[in-house]
Structure formats: C-alpha cells, structure tokens
Protein: Leucyl aminopeptidase family protein
Amino acid sequence: MTLEFAPASDTALPLWLVWAGDPLPPAAGPWPQACGFAGRAGQICLLPDASGGLSGAIMGLGDPAQAGRDRFALARAQSLPPGDWQLADLPQGLDADQLALGWLLGQYRFTRYKGATVPGPRLVCPAGVDADRMLAIAAGEFLTRDLINTPASDLGPDQMEAAARALANSLGARIEVISGTALLKQNFPLIHAVGRAAASDPRLIDIRLGDQGPMLTIVGKGVCFDTGGLNLKPGASMGLMKKDMGGAATALGLLKMLAGTGAAAGLRVRVLIPAVENSVAGNAFRPGDVLSSRKGPTVEVNNTDAEGRLVLADAMTYGAEESPDLMISLATLTGAARVALGPDLPPLYCDDDATAQALQQAAMQVGDPIWRMPFWDPYEALIEPAIADLDNAPSGGMAGSITAALFLRRFAEGAGRYAHLDIYGWQPVAAPGRPKGGVGQGARAILAALPRLF
Structure:
C-alpha cells in the first residue's frame, strides 16, 4: 500500500464532483443521463472519449443538506479505475483539505496477511492544499489502524515495544522501557499486577520528543489483548479484544502526526504506554484483591475486566510527576461510553472549559468528532469502597464511563490540565475514509487544537 498523491500532469483525467440536483458539467454531454446518473452519494459515471477510452468521470455527492455527514466524500472515489485523476472543480460547501485527506484515508488497506494488492487510482493534490501535511496526517492514522488491526498473536506487549522503538528511532525521539519485575522495583505495582499472568512481560514505554517549550503528555492504554482476566469475558465479547490497545495505537499515530506536520516544534511531547496482556494463569490478579498504586491510594479489584484504568493509573501518576502543562489519556476504556454515544463519538472529559472547547471545536472542524461529558463530582462516592481507597468497578453499572473517568482523574493530579477520551478504536461498518476495522479517534482533533491549547 503506497500512500501518495499523483504528480501534476496534463494526462491526469478530470473528475467532476456534483451535488444531487445540480446541473451536470457540459463536457459530460448526455451520457450521464443515459446511464441513470442522479448524483447519489458515491455514484460514479465514467465518461468515454471518441475512441472508447476514458475521458473523465463524474462522482455524486448526494444531498447538499446532508453534506456534514460525509466530510471525506472523496474517499468514495477509490473505486475509480487505476490511473491519475485531478479535480475539475471544487463545488460550493466542500473543503479542499478535507477532500484531499479523505482521498488518502480511503487508500487504506490492511494487507499484512494478504498477497500484493492491485494499484488503485491516484489524485493530483488539489490546489491550495498542503500535500505534505495531509500525507503526514494520513501516515499517522495508517500506523494506528495497522497496529489495531494486527491480531494479538503478532502484537503483544513485546511487539508494541518494538513498534514504539521503530517510531521513536525514525523521529529521533528518546525511548525508555521498564518491564517485568523492574516495574515492581521502580514502583509501578498496578501495571505489573495486571500483566504478570501473560507470557509476555508487562512494560511501561516512555517516549520523549523535544527539549524545550510547554509539555504535552499523552498516555495511551496498551492492553494488547483482554481476556477479562479471572472475570473472563464471554467469547462474543472477547472477539474484538485485540483492539484494546487502541489508545496506545492512537497515541503513537498522534506522535507521528505531530512530528510529521511540524506541530511538535516548540513543545516537549511525552508518550507513555502501559503495555500488558490481561491473561488468565495461576498468578493472575483476583477479584477482591487490594492493590497498591504508584501514587499511594489502594484499589479494591471488584472486576479484573476493569484493568485499563489500573494500568493507566500508574502511567498517569508517573507522567504527572513532571507537572506537564497538559495531560491527555486515550483509552478503549468502557462499554458504557458506547451505550451512551455509540462507536463514532468518543466522550471527552475535561475540567478546563477553554481546553474542552478548543478540542471540541477542532474535532468538528476536521471531522474527528468528540462530545464533552461531565466529571460529575457527586459520583466520586461510587468509586470509594469500604476496605480500600478506590474501587476499580463500582457495582450497579450506572454512569460507567463517568466513574472510570473520575477514577483516572485521581491520578492526573499534578498536571496543569487534564483531558480524557474514552474511544472505541474500531469502525464496525465501513464508511467513507474509514474501512471496517481499526480506526484512530481523537488524534486529528488534538492535532488541530494545538494552536489553541498552548
């Protein structure tokens, strides 16, 4: 899979984009009407030349009143024949950057376990679009998707470390990893407890990019597979658990975007990933155990399947010890978030109004939606059990995403500002620019919001 734009060329075929009900380009002649072209979203009509070859194509955009539903409309044009194409015009209501990025995102194919794929169509980058920036954003998203789509047989904590090292080395970033019993010696008891039953040692991955400026610390949940531990998930719920490292994958993709676009210049960026597998063995942590945390508070384990907040707690405490200006956690954390907002819309938790507004506004501008939810302080009592300082899984099941966020907030103390995104990391049904499978959520929103965050 090659991520690229086509070079500008006189031989690139024209592609017209047409809203349903709008006049067709005169150059198309009567052919589209004869073929039943109606401008439906994604409908493509190939235009013949006098010799029977191709002279161009028209693609429908659908109802202009629903334009906001399909920001990456041009991703649908991936079904065009191979060759080079260029936009013949830019219809009103469309953003050239979003079209170009949509085209690139639509190129994604997960081909690791398949043979070579047939080359697809290429687009000449539209005028006024920063091609290098769009390519860098797409490359970061492709890294995230590749990591999430890779099964746990080929992406455990050790391979997550290898991927992080490869990225850090390519960016000239510094990386340190603490693994196995060294986690206990250096006071990361929750990360060790969750991952100790797995064949691959648990570890904490720490990447740093930049030496001066405000500090942005990103903490990504890296549970490479989640059986649920001794509170074993049913088979139907375990099938997608290779994606439980979606927060870590998104954090690495975001780091690649920050470096590739130059957005990291003038910042100190730190990425922390607790990489574990939540497995079942004789030494697995148990329901009812009381665990110590790096920060100090004890945690009663009332469900071993609520392990993500445990590993994040130690990593966030470590990150907060340097008092970053902004800490953001990214995690495929709760089913409650999916019940509330569905797979496409991750909840955002943030106490700082300016930070939350910057993130939410940027998210809507770039088509990477998030929705603010409350840190509802009255629910703090729900995460305070009888025999320990904190409860990792309050009984009753209500407000599960909020109580998880409140749990994490306890370990963000010391950071100047804190935001948490409870992402899904998976596209259950293919959509323009988002094939079925692993998907990044929140990274492009954070990237776009940076000028307003620092």
Remarks:
- The mean pLDDT is 95.
